[in-house]
Amino acid sequence: MTWKSNRLxxxxxxxGKPVTPESLAASGSEDGHQMAVFAxxxxxxxQYPQLKNLFAIPNGGNRHIVEAIKFVGTGTxxxxxxxxxxxxxIRGWDKKYHGLFIEMKIEKYRNHKNGGRSxxxxxWGDRLIAAGYCVRTCYSWIEARDTLIDYLxxxx
Length: 156
Description:
Blueprint: E1 2-4, E2 7-9, H1 21-25, H2 30-43, E3 54-56, H3 65-73, E4 83-85, E5 89-91, E6 95-97, E7 100-104, H4 119-130, E8 134-138, H5 141-152
Parallel strand pairs: 7-8
Antiparallel strand pairs: 1-2, 3-4, 4-7, 5-6
Helix pairs in contact: 2-5
């Protein structure tokens, strides 16, 4: 994804092949599913303008030790969820959220211990919930898309 003129743009497809959320998720990787979420979001900002406030948090992945040290020094923290929708939801007196965090996992981790989440991810999730954020773990781009819609339409 790239930002251009303050508008989220979908990636440019290879010649003859359209980029769709489905094609991005076809690899089955967590990154592919996360890219699919952002491609879907870019296509749906007219219906849900709040999606312009959706962003990724680059905490995971394998990095060279020098880069990892730099990331930690600049504030990157292990366990922080993968994406955030910086949009508060207020519904009456009983329910409000400051924003939505989504931790992406692939389907094969759904039935693993803690749904495939690390101890750091569980700890961060608990702290974010205590601070008034909605936190969800999603196992596909479709689940993440549905979570975003449910959040924005007041069903969470």
